[in-house]
Amino acid sequence: QVQLQESGPGLVKPSQTLSLMCTVSGGSISSSGYYWSWIRQHPGKGLEWIGYIHYTGSTHYNPALKSRVTISVDTSKNQFSLKLTSVTAADTAVYHCARDYFDGNSGLRYFDYWGQGTLVTVSS
Amino acid sequence: DIVMTQSPDSLAVSLGERATINCKSSQSVLYNSNNKNYLAWYQQKPGQPPKLLIYWASTRKSGVPDRFIGGGSGTDFTLTISSLQAEDVAVYYCQQYNLTPLTFGQGTKLEIK
């Protein structure tokens, strides 16, 4: 059973950088057919896809956040991470990491495993 | 971006009755070359991450009860729960995977009447 666990500071000051790690267990982050995504959920609101990374290091970001986001992967530790710069109160949200299944032939993709999520509050 | 709009925002249905949630995309998510709709449905219970229910707009993920029925095509989709059970209380999201950025509806909160 694949499990994902987010970790990182729960409080970040405005203008600083939000940094989160996702540790994958029960499966290899280098498995083919999968990407690894970050998705956030503002309090009481819907879901916003931030971006994904492939174990090869290939990334794709949401244009709305692209200028501030970096997702990286460490295959030796089975982890991937999120950095979001210049945060404001609008970045306060629960941040989830998720496994992103993708079939390149059909285009089918879905998030099949998620972390529980970690609340990050941006406040001075 | 493809904007996904769900209706209603909240819904209260009696146990055993039918619940229907609507999802509309700002542009078609039907891919003509394979005649498939690039749409998924997720269920999120309180304190839990979302769980995949349906993909290709109508294909249930293995293990999902058959009371969950996805339908629609192009820009208009529905998720129907044919006979509401107490454990179905949750927020439901539609999501398109036709184009990046991947986008979700705002969610529909389903409660027991």
Description:
The complex is a heterodimer of chains A (124) and B (113). Chain A has strands at residues 3-7, 11-12, 18-25, 34-41, 47-53, 59-61, 69-74, 79-84, 93-102, 109-114, 118-122. By secondary structure, chain A is mainly beta. In chain A, the strands form two sheets. In chain A, strands 2, 4, 5, 6, 9, 10 and 11 form a seven-stranded mixed sheet that branches. Chain A has a four-stranded antiparallel sheet with strand order 1-3-8-7, with no helix packed on it. In chain A, strand 7 and strand 8 (79-84) form a beta hairpin. By secondary structure, chain B is mainly beta. In chain B, 38% of the residues are buried. The mean pLDDT of chain B is 96. The A-B interface holds A 45-49, 60, 62-64, 96, 98, 106-112, 114-117 and B 1, 31, 34, 36, 38, 40, 42, 48-52, 55-56, 93, 95, 97-98, 100-107.
What is the compact description of this entry?
Chain A has strands at residues 3-7, 11-12, 18-25, 34-41, 47-53, 59-61, 69-74, 79-84, 93-102, 109-114, 118-122.
Total helical elements of chain A: 0
The number of strands of chain A is: 11
Biggest beta-sheet profile of chain A: 7 strands, mixed
Q: How is the quaternary structure best described?
A: heterodimer
If helices are DSSP runs of H or I spanning 4 or more residues, what is the number of helices of chain B? 0
Q: Using CB atoms under 8 Å apart, which protein chain pair has the greatest interface?
A: A-B, 22 and 26 residues
Mean pLDDT of chain B: 96
General form of chain B? globular
How does the helix and strand content of chain A classify structurally?
mainly beta
How many runs of DSSP E, i.e. beta strands of chain B?
13
- The level of helicity of chain B is under 10%
